[in-house]
Every structure is written in C-alpha cells, then in structure tokens.
Design a protein that fits this description.
This protein has 252 residues and is an alpha/beta fold. It has helices at 4-15, 47-55, 78-89, 99-103, 109-116, 145-156, 184-189, 202-211, 220-223, 227-239; strands at 2-3, 27-30, 35-36, 38-44, 60-65, 93-96, 120-124, 135-144, 161-163, 169-175, 194-197, 214-217, 242-245. The chain has two domains: 2-97 and 226-245, Udp-n-acetylmuramoylalanyl-d-glutamate--2,6- Diaminopimelate Ligase, Chain: A, domain 1, CATH 3.40.1390; 109-223, NIF3 (NGG1p interacting factor 3)-like (Udp-n-acetylmuramoylalanyl-d-glutamate--2,6- Diaminopimelate Ligase, Chain: A, domain 1), CATH 3.40.1390.30. 36% of the residues lie in helices and 25% in strands. Strands 7-8-10-11-12-9 form a six-stranded mixed sheet. One of its GO terms (cellular component) is cytoplasm.
Length: 252
Amino acid sequence: MAKLNEIIQWCDQTLKSHEFKDYAPNGLQIEGKQDIHKILCAVTASQDAIDAAIAQGADLLLVHHGYFWKGEPYPITGMRGKRIKSLIQQDISLVGYHLPLDSHPTLGNNAAIADILELENIEALDPAERNPIGNIGYLHTAMSAEDFKHYVSERLNFNAIHLPAEKNSIHKVAYCTGGAQDFIGKAAAQNCDAYISGEVSERTFYEAKELNVHYYACGHHATERYGVQRLAKAISEQFNIEYSYFELNNPI
C-alpha cells in the first residue's frame, strides 16, 4: 500500500512536471481514496478504462490523456460528466501526465519508440527545448523507405501510413508521438530522412514531398501506449504496489 500524495509527489519530481507548459493539468486531476493498493493504467481516461478500473478494484487510474484540456467547456456534463461521476462514486483517483510523459528520457513515449525501433545516438529534435518533446535517432543500418515502412509497422503493431519524399534511403529519423505531425518542419530543419508521429493531416502529404522528409503516421494511440506502462511499472517498483494495463486498441 502507498499513500496517494506520496505517489503524486514522486511522479511530479520524476517527470519534472512543473517545468512544462502543457494543454492540461499534469498530476492529480480527480482525488479519490488516499490508500492506494492497485493502479490501472491506460492511454486515455475513456469510459471503458474507467469501467475496467472499477471491475479490477483499482484505486488509481493512471493515464496519458486525462481531462480539463484548454478550450474545453467548463460544465461537467454529458460524456465527460458521466466519466467523472463514475470515478467519484467509486472513490478512484485520476492521475494524468501528458507532455512530461512524452519527454521523459527513460519512461517516456518517445524513449519507448527509440528502444522499440533500436535507434541510436539520441538527440533533441529542437535543441532549444529544455525538456525536448521530440527526438532524433539513427538506424544502425540505413533502409529503403519501403523497408522502413514495414519495419515500423511490425515493431509498433500498426499499419503505418507512408507519405513519400525523394530521398532514397533512411538513416536519420526524427520522431514525436501522438498528434505532432506539424513537427515535420523541425525534422526538415535538422536534415532528417524521415519523421514519425501518430496522426496525419491532409497538409502533411505536401509538406513531406516539398520538405523532402519521408513521413510515417504510426497511430496516436499506438505510439503512446508505452509511457503509461513504464510509469506504472516504475511506481509499482518504487512503492511495492500492484499495477495492470488496460488496452482498448484505438485505430487512430
């Protein structure tokens, strides 16, 4: 068993959440019981994830995508109201970490992508950032653009969408998980051969072609299902409590 406030304090310090300007609050979003015996982690605080937390007797739901995003309506009604009501009625805490969990050099989503794709010599996509949100890595052996598509699709268990450029081979790879397709310009500025993110926009097709950077959309969910698992495992080891992961395979 661990205390809720001890877990939050440890996570905040480990992820340096106070150093990020984010689109939603990081850390404790909905406060439940203070004694934590079990954590369920999930990418998004969907109703399915909440129902799984209730069914499994979890005391804390740890997510990458929580609530209270900038620009959202203030009233707690409708779908979001139902979700929050379910958590409060069951006395389950909701804890979410967004950009700090993308950025962390060992627990983060980007770190996981580098490990899975066996990228080497990791560096910042934007050298001016104190805590880089995106990164650059290098393949041990260069690949053709088509071979790289098959490689990332297999490794990330997602049928990647490839928007082609003129470069014949890929060695230097930029990446930022989730909905960061617009960072392709940063990848071009760093003379990368390819850029990986989760989602894709109509404009990205033209940007890949004109900036001469191969773009691979590997799924918002698919690229961000690793950070919460790494963080939950680290919490479990730090505080000797149980955790499990809930997977709802979102195709986006």
